[in-house]
Amino acid sequence: MKTLMLCCLLGFSSASFAGWFDNNENVLWQFRDQFVRIEAQESGSVPNQHPVKFAPDQIRHLLASLTVQRDTKLYPVFTETELKLISEPITKALSMARPEEDVSFAIVGMHPGLLTNENRVVTGRIFFQQQQLQVVFGLLHEEINEKQDRRLYPFTLGSRSGSLESTKWKLQTSAGQVLVAERPDWIALTPKTVLAQVVSAQLLKPEQVARETAQVRQETTRLNSEQKQLLENTSRLQQEVSQLKQEVTTLKQAPVAPIAKKAVAPAPAVNAATSSVEQRLLTLQQLRDKQLITEQEYQQRRLKILDSL
Questions:
Q1: CB atoms within 10 A of CB 57
Q2: Is 286 exposed, middle or buried (0-12, 13-18, 19+ CB in 10 A)?
Q3: Going by fewer Cβ within 10 Å, which terminus of the chain is more open, N or C?
Q4: Which pTM does this prediction carry?
């Protein structure tokens, strides 16, 4: 009674305190403020096609295909760690839920923040309707106030009635995915189409495998040939270097031959006798020119000098 009075005084709806009164059988997984649980549909909702059976790997692949645009950038909605934690309990919850029930979840993981990765929360409700797995998100990569008591401030789940006014992100679609009523927070997945895309991405067709294998073999053969040629060139260069070193060593050890000086031909010896005769004739001529001797005397003595040769 006191609890109900407190709720009324604080102005919280009974839905805000749903987690306080959950039957333990409806909580498939819980860790601190995180959970996967079965809860009643919103009032006036079309009944779901529950229970429905999936394999945990199928749920993991379906959720892993979801992406969101935040601030012009594209991010996966869930991290691998988050998918490992919630895939199995969501699978089990879908197999247990009744047509008037949804599966709700809240999961915290490391997502890109302003400067680095931060702990951020993703919440929503999942249900199977019109042969589609549908997810309505409430909070997506939302910052967490660790000081808040979740009993008083529970995480906001997605709602069929409309998206949150604070939504600044938009889910992106690919093959087998469509936004319900063009809302940025509500997406419907056709399991067969989405899972087929996953399989085709993971498995290559036989002809493609054969083609890529042949390309790998051809590239390997080319690389082996180039490696062989490179080894041969290296060996040849090593031999040439070794030969050059040997030639340098030989040149260093060889004696240096002395530089031959050019022989200078001796000047021809002057005939002393010839030089004396010439001198005597010049002297005789000078005496005549000075008229110290007569022409007759000059001729006589000249003959005598020449006779002496």
A1: 13
A2: exposed
A3: N
A4: 0.59
Phi, psi dihedrals of residue 72, rounded to the nearest 5°:
70, 0
Q: How many CB atoms lie within 10 A of CB 307?
A: 7
Q: What is the pLDDT, as a whole number, of residue 165?
A: 72
pLDDT, one tens digit per residue, over 98-146 is: 999 999 999 999 999 888 899 999 999 999 999 999 999 999 999 999 8
Q: Following DSSP, what letter does each residue of 255-269 receive, concatenated? A: PPPPPPPPPPPPPPP
Whole-angstrom distance, CA of residue 112 vs CA of residue 130: 34
Enumerate the domain spans of the chain: 8-202, 278-307
Kindly tell me the number of DSSP H helices and DSSP E strands found in the chain.
7, 10
**DSSP secondary structure of 129-169:** ETTEEEEEEEEEEEE--TTS-TTTSPPPPP-TT---TT--E
Q: How far is residue 102's CA from residue 140's CA, in Å, rounded to a whole number?
A: 18
SS3 assignment, position 278 = helix
CA distance 46 to 50: 12
pLDDT digits (tens, 9 = 90+) for 15-55: 333 344 445 789 999 999 999 999 999 999 999 999 999 99
3-state SS string for 79-116: CHHHHHHHHHHHHHHHHHCCCCEEEEEEEEEEEECCCC
Interval 74-108: pLDDT, tens: 999 999 999 999 999 999 999 999 999 999 999 99
Whole-angstrom Cα distance, residue 67 to residue 80?
A: 13
Phi/psi of residue 181, nearest 5 degrees = 55, 30
